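To illustrate the input format used throughout this study, we show a single complete record. The first block contains the structure-token representation of the backbone; no residue identities are included at this stage. The design step must infer an amino acid for every position from geometry alone.
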């Protein structure tokens, strides 16, 4: 399912227009991105949590030359599924 299909499904389930559903989904995603990139955690009970995670520096290899290289430490977004979400996917 892509964003367009998600918008269609939400519009059908809630009875709002596709334009309104798109605005709500876009605002929700933008807010989650802004919050996590600011270093905070977003928790949606039953669904899951979005949070920034620090990835340590490590040694890697260039696949073309097999030469060792240093991969810098970075911060990446992380998602942990909530209990209700996990149980509905894998009962």
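Output of the design step:
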């Amino acid at each position: 399912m892509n964003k367009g299909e998600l918008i269609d499904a939400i519009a059908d389930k809630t009875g709002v227009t596709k334009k309104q559903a798109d605005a709500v989904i876009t605002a929700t995603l933008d807010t989650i991105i802004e919050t996590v990139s600011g270093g905070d955690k977003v928790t949606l009970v039953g669904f899951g949590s979005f949070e920034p995670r620090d990835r340590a520096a490590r040694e890697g290899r260039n696949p073309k030359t097999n030469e060792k290289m240093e991969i810098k430490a970075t911060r990446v977004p992380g998602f942990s599924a909530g209990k209700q979400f996990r149980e509905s996917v894998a009962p």
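Structural context for interpreting the output: Strands lie at 42-44, 48-55, 58-61, 68-71, 74-81. The radius of gyration is 19 Å.
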